[in-house]
């Protein structure tokens, strides 16, 4: 209990996780009553399959990156596209976004997914409604354990060269020594923001735990098995506002795969502390079950395919 209290009060959690934002997760019983537009006609789904392999990109772009908005936190009179944004996410299927659970606690009708913002000003922004949110059944908002969720969209996105899906690694996969994290960065004096890529080292679980035991969290801090760590190089790390963004690592054939989801850190890595991510490989089975049980194709995002 001491560890949980310390973690809650001293750790900088990424992006909008104030106590007032925390709502009860949706009842899993409601999922069985939902139908998806493209499930009503079996032949419809074939037309929304990607035309390219998952994890492919051009010139280092991030075609699978999305922004999640909570409409209850934005003002109707505002023209700011990002007002009400509560975190990032990753498109892993034309109808599914992978994100942090702390960004998906609002009722589905309040959430909206934005695409087309990864390049900067957002001239090609598209907005998508959410029909269902699925938070991991063991998500603990007090300590961010199992901080993973899926957003199911009201209709499938039409994929293109500028809008693609990320790959997910197999459950037994290990990341490379260095991977890529993403952060929001200012792109000009007009206030537009874009995505900046940050090259970061990956730490093993024990090494990361020892680093945090040397911080204010204390020598008894235990890093939960649902976490992984990357970063810790001064001036080269993600920070507040980047919550939910992916950690992607090189894979075969020029592709990349998502191994992590940004959750928290201490002081944005200014003192050499790594950022903490959801370890996506530990939840690959859970992701497959949730998507497959809704009649959607789980091979679309499979790196092993």
Question: Which descriptors would you attach to this protein?
Answer:
9% helix, 6-stranded antiparallel barrel, 7-stranded antiparallel sheet, Thrombin, subunit H, Phenoloxidase-activating factor 2, Trypsin_dom, disordered N terminus, signal, Ser/Thr_Proteases_Immune/Dev, disulfide bond
Could you explain the architecture of this structure?
The chain is mostly beta strands and 305 residues long. It has two domains: 14-165 and 284-292, Trypsin-like serine proteases (Thrombin, subunit H, Beta Barrel); 178-282, Trypsin-like serine proteases (Thrombin, subunit H, Beta Barrel), CATH 2.40.10. 9% of the residues lie in helices and 28% in strands. It is built from three helices and 13 strands. The chain has helices at 2-10, 205-213, 284-292, and strands at 12-13, 65-70, 85-93, 96-99, 111-115, 126-135, 149-153, 178-186, 193-203, 227-230, 246-250, 256-265, 275-279. The strands form two sheets. Strands 1, 8, 9, 10, 11, 12 and 13 form a seven-stranded antiparallel β-sheet that branches. Strands 2-3-4-7-6-5 form a six-stranded antiparallel beta barrel. The longest helix has 9 residues, at 2-10. The protein is globular. The N and C termini lie far apart (43 Å). Mean pLDDT is 79; it is low at 1-51.
Set down the secondary structure blueprint:
Layout: H1 2-10, E1 12-13, E2 65-70, E3 85-93, E4 96-99, E5 111-115, E6 126-135, E7 149-153, E8 178-186, E9 193-203, H2 205-213, E10 227-230, E11 246-250, E12 256-265, E13 275-279, H3 284-292
Antiparallel strand pairs: 1-12, 2-3, 2-5, 3-4, 4-7, 5-6, 6-7, 8-9, 9-10, 10-13, 11-12, 12-13
